[in-house]
Amino acid sequence: MRNGLLQCLVILFLTVVSCSYADRPNIVIIMVDDMGFSDIGCYGAETETPNLDALAGNGIRFTQFYNTGRCCPTRAALLTGLYQHQAGIGHMTQDYGHPAYRGALNDKCVTIAEALKPAGYFTAITGKWHVGSAPSQWPCQRGFDRFYGTPQGGGHHWKNLPGRDLVLNDKVIPMPEDWYSTTAFTEHALQFIDEGVAAEKPVFLYMAYTAPHWGLHAPAEEIAKFEGRYADGWQPVRERRFARQLELGLFPAETQLSPPDPKVPSWSSVDQQEMDLRMATHAAMVHLIDRGVGQVVDRLKKHGQFDNTLILFLSDNGASAESGPTGFTGSRGGDPKARTGTRDSYNSFGISGANMCDTPFRRYKMYAHEGGIATPLIAHWPAAIPGRLNGSITSKPGHVIDLLPTCLDVAGAVYPMQRNRQATIPVAGRSLMPVLNGGDLPRPEGLFWEHQGNAAVRDGKWKLVRAHKQKWSLYDLESDRTELSDVSGRHPKRVAAMKKMWADWAERVGALPWPVKKKK
After folding, report:
1. In angstroms, how far apart are the furthest CA atoms of the chain?
2. Residues with Cβ < 8 Å from 106, sequence gap 6 or more?
3. Distance, CA of 26 to chain centre
4. Do 265 and 352 meet the contact criterion of CB atoms below 8 Å apart?
5. Closest CA to 163 of 171, 155, 91
6. CA distance 378 to 39
């Protein structure tokens, strides 16, 4: 009798726990690679992105959301809720021997997946990991049940490159002949959703597309949809995008478009057909991401899970200007004679294309200016975001360090105090749920950036920023979001106070002067 009663109580307990887990919302974070602020329709682009536009139309768009300015650091901060230095990835995946520069996630941080698994979540990732290259540092060792993608940085969208593995869970697998990155990552995301639903668990899915990072690759029929749209040059496209941004209400009417980068050549001096093709290929890559987003939405709807799923969409940094004024041709073993977009090509669009993609801002990926760190963020969750906020735009500042605390808040999960018997660092970010409910998000401690000596601190409407080895500039982002009027000379006390804020933060997180010297 007593044993029977005990069995009944155990079954009842497991049933209650199972039901409570199943009722928890799904969470889907979709992060793209090297996409500029203006590269999707609902942020000003001429590129058709109907699925993202629909999420924005029934959700919330952020205009002042930030990443860290580069891929590895952003991924570390997003996954852990800490500044990248605290998580061990102060630069990229090289190990400099210093605690903040080990090149992989350390044991003083936990990932979103590690925090959500005890709350009953099925955890999966597709795409780019890039926060630890050794097998012992891969996603399935950091809380993920499933992984399909590359542990290293993005390489080629049609095929593998040396040093770029394709991995399923813990095993390197061969790449199919007909492989295309965005399609493959989407297909496995759909499989992982099915698997989580079949297990009657809430799903945490992290989709980390490698597109639209160079090389510029897309199917010819997709590129053809966009050819000719850039035939009049980068600056006219910038101007049209900016006009659209003002029309959408993304910026106040008095906002000024930053002038063209002086390194952008005149349109008449370049191969216009080739430059149009490169921008069309980039647009096609973004369009295919949008198609993948639509497939995820459809799969969630098929399972009756769409309304109770928080979807967050963002980019890891601003557009990339790493390859000169008009980009490289035939890099990484690509054929310089191959048509842009094809399997044998490996091309980019350089400063000129990045300047257009980052409309209306200055600077690019790797910088702490707005063009490097400002990203679109779309938040969509019909079951929780009030209907009155559908289609709304918020200028409340946020940062990728806020995504882990947001996920824990949404899931009712607890931040672990230890990992591998080491005390974890308290979360640096804040839950975005107050903003998703129409409220405020006070941040008296400020927000901070450092990458390769490029640095910034934001305190309310004020932003102090510098490029490496250059002097600090102060901007009032309330009236000068595009950072055109340096007011540091008028506010010396504020500059001094914010410089101290930044220096104190750098000391606390272990950020070292650039270039970092490798510890012997």
Report:
1. 90
2. 87, 88, 99
3. 19
4. yes
5. 155
6. 13
Q: What is the pLDDT of residues 409-457, one digit of tens each?
A: 999 999 999 999 999 999 999 999 999 999 999 999 999 999 999 999 9
| 292 and 185 Cβ atoms separated by less than 8 Å | yes
Angle between the N-to-C axes of helices 234-248 and 350-357, in degrees from 0 to 180, rounded to the nearest 10: 20
Instruction: Please indicate, yes or no, if residue 302 is contained in any of the structural domains.
Output: yes
Residue 167 lies in a domain: yes
C-alpha torsion 21→22→25→26, nearest 10: 100
Q: What is the mean pLDDT of residues 295-311?
A: 99
- Three-class DSSP category at 321: coil
Tell the residue number behind the tokens 């949809």, with chain if given: 225
Q: How many CB atoms lie within 10 A of CB 413?
A: 20
d(CA 116, CA 161): 33
Peptide bond into 360 cis (omega under 30): yes
Residue with the two structure tokens 């039901």? 19
Answer yes or no: is 482 within a domain: no
Q: In this model, does residue 1 exceed pLDDT 80?
A: no
**CB contact at 8 A, 258 and 245:** no
Residue 472 DSSP symbol = -
Residues 6+ apart with CB under 8 A from 122: 145, 192, 195, 196, 199, 201, 202, 203, 204
Please state, as a whole number, how many other Cβ atoms lie within 10 Å of the Cβ of residue 383.
Answer: 10
| CB-based contact 457:447 (threshold 8 Å) | yes
Report whether 321 contacts 350 (CB < 8 A). yes
Q: How many domains does the chain have?
A: 1
Alpha-helix residue ranges (DSSP H) falling in 249-307: 272-302
Q: Name the burial class of residue 134, with classes exposed (0-12), middle (13-18) and buried (19+) by CB atoms within 10 angstroms of its CB.
A: exposed
Question: Strands (DSSP E) along 331-484, which ranges?
Answer: 374-380, 392-394, 398-399, 418-419, 422-423, 447-451, 454-459, 462-466, 473-476
Which token pair is 241? 């995008």
Pick the closest to residue 447 from 92, 79, 100, 65 (CA basis): 65
Active site (catalytic) residues: 71, 130
Question: Which tens digit of pLDDT belongs to each residue from 397-407?
Answer: 999 999 999 99
For the domain that residue 291 is a member of, what is the CATH number? 3.40.720.10
In a domain, 43, yes or no: yes
* pLDDT in the model for residue 162: 85
Question: Which domain does 228 fall in, by range?
Answer: 24-443
Q: Tally DSSP H helices, then E strands, for the chain.
A: 14, 17
Q: How far apart are CA 22 and CA 121, in angstroms?
A: 9
Neighbours of 15 (CB within 10 A): 10
CA angle (371 as vertex; 239, 244 as ends), nearest 5: 30
Residue 232 to residues 41, 228, 237, 258, Cα–Cα distance (Å): 19, 8, 8, 19
Give the pLDDT confidence of 261-276 residue by residue, as tens digits. 999 999 999 999 999 9
Question: For residues 374 and 35, what is the distance between their CA atoms, to the nearest angstrom?
Answer: 10
Between residues 439 and 17, the one the model is more confident about:
439
